[in-house]
Amino acid sequence: MGRVLGALGAVTVLLFGVGGSAGAEDGYRLWLRAEGGGADVTLPCDEPSETLTIARDELSAALPHGTVRFATSSCRGEGSPRLPRQRDVGEEGYRIAMDGEGYVITARSDVGALYGTYRLIRAVSTGEAMPEDGLTEQPAKRLRLLNHWDNLDRHVERGYSGESIWNWHLLPDYLDPRYTDYARANASIGINGVSLTNVNADATVLTPPFIEKVAALAGVFRPYGIKVYLTARFSAPIEIGGLETADPLDGEVAAWWKAKADEIYAAIPDFGGFLVKANSEGQPGPQDYGRTHADGANMLARAVEPHGGIVMWRAFVYSAEEPEDRVKQAYTEFVPLDGKFADNVLVQVKNGPLDFQPREPFSPLFGAMPKTPLLAELQITKEYLGFATHLSYLGPLWSEALTADTHARGKDSLVADRVDGLAGVANIGTDRNWSGSQFAQANWYAFGRLAWDPKAEPEAIARDWVRQTFTDDAEAVDRIVGMMMRSREAVVDYMTPLGLTHLMGTGHHYGPAPWVDDLGRADWTPYYYHRATKDAVGFDRTESGSDAVSQYHEPLASQWNEVETTPEELLLWFHRVPWDHEVKDGSTLWQSLVAHYDRGVAEVQAMRETWAGLEGKIDEDRYAQTADFLAIQEKEARWWRDASIAYWQSVNGLDLPEGARPPEHDLAWYKAQSFPYAPGN
Amino acid sequence: MGRVLGALGAVTVLLFGVGGSAGAEDGYRLWLRAEGGGADVTLPCDEPSETLTIARDELSAALPHGTVRFATSSCRGEGSPRLPRQRDVGEEGYRIAMDGEGYVITARSDVGALYGTYRLIRAVSTGEAMPEDGLTEQPAKRLRLLNHWDNLDRHVERGYSGESIWNWHLLPDYLDPRYTDYARANASIGINGVSLTNVNADATVLTPPFIEKVAALAGVFRPYGIKVYLTARFSAPIEIGGLETADPLDGEVAAWWKAKADEIYAAIPDFGGFLVKANSEGQPGPQDYGRTHADGANMLARAVEPHGGIVMWRAFVYSAEEPEDRVKQAYTEFVPLDGKFADNVLVQVKNGPLDFQPREPFSPLFGAMPKTPLLAELQITKEYLGFATHLSYLGPLWSEALTADTHARGKDSLVADRVDGLAGVANIGTDRNWSGSQFAQANWYAFGRLAWDPKAEPEAIARDWVRQTFTDDAEAVDRIVGMMMRSREAVVDYMTPLGLTHLMGTGHHYGPAPWVDDLGRADWTPYYYHRATKDAVGFDRTESGSDAVSQYHEPLASQWNEVETTPEELLLWFHRVPWDHEVKDGSTLWQSLVAHYDRGVAEVQAMRETWAGLEGKIDEDRYAQTADFLAIQEKEARWWRDASIAYWQSVNGLDLPEGARPPEHDLAWYKAQSFPYAPGN
Predict the structure, then answer these.
(1) Considering only the top CATH level, what class is B143-465?
(2) B39: left (phi over 0), alpha (psi -120 to 50) or beta
């Protein structure tokens, strides 16, 4: 039996201190709001560090009617662990117990106690029942990182939330309070690292003035348990080092990186390490010198290893010159290197083998590199799922990938068990609401929660988020969570159903453009992926086609090799089928395709109606912004449907299924739409 | 005898509705804060328009303990003027009278009543004594515009406050509440027009999708009395019209512009007109076809005239190929065109003949185009005065220019009397504090106040701003106003004293670089302006030099022709003098130069001390941000001083004056500093 925590009062005590009227609401406070309840809490140790002071302040703000005290008995004095050793609690874990006077938080480290603090606040906010014998938790994964794709000119690649929050010009002298608010938000969901710069890297960040700026940010994040990482431009030895080469096997090059690492660690003793995109989409890398990814990664790894640093080397590779099916190439390039990476290297693998589409099968690399530490890279920013405006909760997408069974060691070889952590491409920018829209915040939140526990239930996470962010009105919560849980599939339905993929506009990736077939590289065109002709559509990835299925273990390889045993949601990913192919419900592929589009649009309409019914149950400002964005989403969902249908019809020559509405415009109109200033490009 | 308005209570009622804690403060609310006082106010007409409803809401928020009512007697019914005719009150003027029950606001138009409303609120905020027989006011100038140098990709040229606030991607469907807050802020200081786009124009804004977005913004601004203007890319007929030429005398081109204007006015019936930069710094223009500025302006003027629109044609021209002294060229090019412009064209002239330097003499065009309507263009964003961080109140700079006597028609031919209005290059962006720093807001405010009344006293404006923005503690107000009033001269002192000019870093214009002498164009180099040699420094603009003095009327031409009668603050602008030239206080030029630098740095130190003494008198958040920025300003003031001295010494070989501190680094160090990501470039 549990005990309901705290008092869920209507008083809103604000944790983020910024100006404005007490009645208005712009989402700046994210999910960190207080219930005004009361709970007495004991934190470890009466000589509080900066971290424990933060913990106390969080509790005082969140539960202002209670008291916070520090336990004198748990300080062991200078030089010895200040906190009692907990057997089942790792370095970042905590225990929340109850005694007659309230709650007692203990942990192995101050940051663990801080995590326990946020956990307790969450429990109070959501009205969670606390087990009688308390709560002991620790993160399942040690690396829980955000990856910002922020350029030094403050443009955010694939960013739809304003500019980069890093104000390089004013750093290191001016520390914007927003950096602290950022750290708090992340710590509250267990994020423990951030890579500050775009994977399309700029060596300038490794120059002395910028190292000083980065060190200033690291100082803000440190008490929140957040380490700083940087992207390493592989050609930096040439660009800023004055060397003639960046060959990782060149002694001068290795020495340069070693000295650079030493320089960084002198300024930032707990610097996390480097994230690298190499020999991908034009980025420099070891292959420029006939070396392997392992050669490159290991050279960098040796430079940071003495300092405890790591190297995260991205496996997002595909070459226009390589004739192999794009989605096979990363496997082809990396599997031979399994076991060849140094211990402090992790290979960072996108959830799917293509590129963050609304649905992809999991990447076969997760089942094929047993000797190499891996990270799963997820995309929080909605590059392919409607930018900031479309409401699309990605918890289900990520959970689908993380709980996928690779069958690498027989059954129950989940992707989640194969990785040492998660990296999330951030959706954060200078917009007042951080993420471009209110509901985009939910994806940031869910990412943190899944990084902590990749097997957590996305619906439970959504429920927590809604309660922490909007309301604890039970019916409202149910309705909002319902919208969220159906929203990912809605996007799949109106953009890329039935295993279709990569049909977006060129460059900016905004809106539909399935007709594009004439870019510099075939593997950048939508046509490459759907290959639609008068008779058929889809990419044959079976043994008779590109044989991408063989990169998966049995029974998946066999299941996906046959249309009959392929889940319909991946049909056109793995198979090429005629337009009149009969799908599971007895309709034709064409009829089903149009039905999916209509279902997607209908789901957005339903979301709008549900949301309209919530007016008055949440604050007017966030209600209105979300209502406006849902209207945009409906307009764009129709656009995706109509443009796609117009195109498919121009290829297959088929009439619309009975009762289906024709596209609003003709294909030429859709092709003529141009968006020179769509954001994030 | 006046009567003190309202009650200056300590309760802060916030007018801008955005989320946050009631205790914290980020400057978002600008100068629109309430005193919680009470005053009963009567507005015109009981069938309130949107504008009058806004006025009532402003009063209710600002003076919540009073009541607001509408006067039933002043509505005259459909179709006839709804408000009583006021003899001494123009279309935008108002009268604030007092009766037994409070205040009565009347006006010729609803917008006039809105201006009266803000005027009353200001009076209450600042504790102003209202004359017994009330207040009747109207703007001295009809055109009071902001010019945003915002690009469609949201980069703001010379912007140090984040991105462009115009979210083109979400327009027209989503109207960010910030647009309304922007409109309120501007209406409160009498701004009645905004040019949305960069003068380095992009024809895309004239395409149908963007016209729709612009119309949406115009709809937000309209009830606040603010018209929208756009910059017209002169080559638009080619770029978006498909024509072969943009020759203004070509019939097809004129027809294209006419149709384009008609299209814009169909969407925006009160569109203001076009702002044009042509044949300047690479922009296309009529001279590309052997036509004059008047040819180009008049063609556009004819296109907008039927709709009541205007054309503002910038006189910021200078050519690298033209050997004449850069500061003479605008006069040379435009004076022959005096009287040749259509009635609805205004020539827009920067305050000085160079480019917004900390100090310049006024532009001779103000005294030389008597037959042409003129606008004065001022720069609110501090491109040359320290970006957003340096505290530099520009009221004195603008007043100096506006109250300068051109002597065009004998004495008292002030610049202010020669112009039909003011255009201010905005310092507004997505930063939470709008303008990049708290004190940068003061320049936006002062611009509006001077556009309304160009002869207003900058100190009185500063006093109002401080009282409306920070505090009404008399001592604190005095100290802050004192800082502000000395701050412009401080920047002159540490950057460009004694008439020196244009010594900033290349491209980004950040920091000092007086040594630069080797760019693509000589007139872009600092060296062009100071011409320092071992023996002398300064630009001879007298009759024996470039004779720029002759572009001014007597007695100025003669006064500035002689060193003895030239104000020391313009010495090196007009004269070339030896380093040992004796200045007015008996010291040498060199000694005086170093003394000015030291005085500038000392003034910043003094500002820091003054500010430190204000801790506790204003809110902690804005106090802290300003303190941090003042520290940056001191660091940069020293840098300007030290780098400049190091350079001058390398040229003149002179020892430092007795007691002067040597530069911290050597010249090579200063030359090596590089800022690839300085903002606004």
Answers:
(1) alpha beta
(2) beta
| Whole-number Å distance between alpha carbons of B681 and B155 | 9
Rounded alpha-carbon distances, angstroms, from residue A8 to A38, A468, B49, B304: 9, 11, 43, 61
Phi, psi of A137 (to 5 degrees): -140, 155
Tokens of A420: 């040492």
Q: How far is A629 from chain B (nearest CA, A)?
A: 7
Please name the residues in contact with A609: beta carbons below 8 A apart, sequence gap of 6 or more: none
Q: What are the DSSP E strand ranges found in B380-444?
A: 419-425
Residue type, A516: V
Average pLDDT, chain A: 93
CA distance A73 to A106: 11
Tens digit of each residue's pLDDT (9 = 90 or more) over B130-151: 898 899 999 999 999 999 999 9
Question: Backbone phi, then psi, for B146, in 5-degree steps?
Answer: -95, 140
Task: Give the list of residues 6+ apart from residue B658 with CB closer than 8 angstroms, or none.
Answer: none
Is B628 touching A (CB cutoff 8 A)?
Answer: yes
User: SS in 3 state form for A574-642?
Assistant: HCCEECCCECCCCCEHHHHHHHHHHHHHHHHHHHHHHHHCCECCECHHHHHHHHHHHHHHHHHHHHHHH
Q: What share of chain B is helix, strand, coil (3-state, %, to 5)?
A: 40, 15, 45
Q: Identify the active-site residue in A181, A305, A383, A405.
A: A383
Tell me the pLDDT tens digit for each residue of A537-573: 999 999 999 999 999 999 999 999 999 999 999 999 9
Query: Taking CB atoms and an 8 Å limit, are B154 and A679 in contact across chains?
Result: yes
Q: pTM value?
A: 0.95
Question: Structural domain boundaries of chain A?
Answer: 2-137, 143-465, 494-539+576-672
C-beta separation of B347 from B313 below 8 A: yes
Q: By the CB < 8 Å criterion, does A29 face chain B? A: yes
* Residue among B145, B215, B647, B676 at smallest CA distance from B419: B145
Residues of B in contact with A169 (CB under 8 A): 160, 387, 675, 677-679
CATH architecture of the domain A494-539+576-672 equals Alpha-Beta Complex (3.90)
Alpha-carbon distance A562 to A272, whole Å? 45
Written as six digits, the tokens of B143 are 């055109």
Domains B143-465 and B494-539+576-672 fall in the same CATH topology: no
Fold of the B2-137 domain: Chitobiase; domain 2 (3.30.379)
Q: What is the pLDDT of residue B87?
A: 64
In the DSSP assignment, the letter for residue B149 is -
**Do A378 and A398 contact (CB within 8 A), yes or no?**
yes
A383 tagged catalytic:
yes
Average pLDDT along chain B, 681 residues, taken 10 residues at a time? 32 28 75 78 81 94 86 54 62 90 88 95 89 93 98 98 98 98 98 98 98 98 98 98 98 98 98 98 97 98 98 95 94 98 98 98 98 98 98 98 97 96 98 98 98 98 96 96 98 98 98 96 95 98 98 98 98 98 97 98 98 96 97 98 98 97 98 97 94
pLDDT digits (tens, 9 = 90+) for A148-172: 999 999 999 999 999 999 999 999 9
Q: Which residues contact A402 (CB under 8 A, 6 or more apart)?
A: A351, A376, A414, A415, A416, A450, A454, A455
Let me know: does B503 contact B644? Beta carbons within 8 Å: yes
Interatomic CA distance for residues B338 and A35, integer angstroms: 69
Distance (Å, rounded) from C-alpha B189 to C-alpha A314?
A: 53
For residue A275, what pLDDT is reported? 98
CA A262 to chain centroid, in Å, comes to 30
B224 and chain A: CB distance < 8 Å anywhere?
Answer: no
C-alpha to C-alpha distance for B475 and B303, rounded to whole angstroms: 55
